[in-house]
């Protein structure tokens, strides 16, 4: 479901945007504009190994802030991240970037999304 929503949102958000130069530009757009439109804040940190792997870190992820900050609900956190993984994957797909998106939570409400770009 997140994949399809991501596809639709990115169409709406990029209709007046010039073409992106490379996948780093695409990821910057996802971290700044797309994330801000969806979650009302930018990604806190974007890292890359320049070999197709990007790590997006959100220190106060909106969908996890309502859960307890303790370890009590840590095991339930992945359920809240699956939709967002699909959202990012769908957005990237519509921008011509095939990817695998995974998420991890070690301390609530912070989370990291790992985006692995697949070469076509």
Topology:
Elements: H1 2-13, H2 23-39, E1 45-48, E2 53-58, H3 77-94, E3 99-104, E4 111-117
Antiparallel strand pairs: 1-2, 2-4, 3-4
Describe, in plain words, how this protein is organized in 3D.
This protein has 120 residues and is α+β, with helices and mostly antiparallel strands. Helices cover 39% and strands 19% of the residues. The chain contains three helices and four strands. The protein has helices at residues 2-13, 23-39, 77-94; strands at 45-48, 53-58, 99-104, 111-117. Strands 1-2-4-3 form a four-stranded antiparallel sheet, with helices on one face. Helix 1 packs across helix 3 (77-94). It starts with a helix and ends with a strand. 27% of the residues are buried.
Strands, count: 4
Secondary-structure-derived class: alpha+beta
Question: Which overall shape is indicated by the principal axes computed on the Cα atoms?
Answer: globular
- The N- to C-terminal Cα distance equals 24 Å
Percent helix range: 25-40%
User: What share of residues are in beta strands?
Assistant: 15-25%
Q: What ranges have pLDDT less than 50 throughout 5 or more consecutive residues?
A: none
Q: Give the biggest sheet.
A: 4 strands, antiparallel
List keywords for this structure.
4-stranded antiparallel β-sheet, alpha+beta, globular
The gist of it:
The chain has about 120 residues and is of the alpha+beta class.
């Amino acid at each position: 479901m997140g994949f399809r929503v991501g596809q639709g949102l990115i169409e709406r958000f990029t209709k007046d945007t010039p073409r992106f130069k490379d996948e780093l530009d695409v990821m910057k757009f996802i971290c700044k504009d797309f994330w801000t439109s969806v979650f009302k804040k930018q990604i806190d940190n974007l890292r890359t190994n320049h070999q197709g792997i990007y790590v997006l870190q959100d220190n106060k992820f909106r969908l996890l802030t309502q859960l307890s900050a303790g370890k009590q609900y840590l095991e339930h956190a992945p359920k809240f991240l699956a939709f967002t993984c699909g959202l990012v994957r769908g957005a990237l797909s519509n921008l011509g970037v095939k990817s695998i998106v995974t998420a991890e939570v070690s301390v609530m409400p912070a989370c990291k999304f790992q985006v692995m770009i697949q070469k076509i």
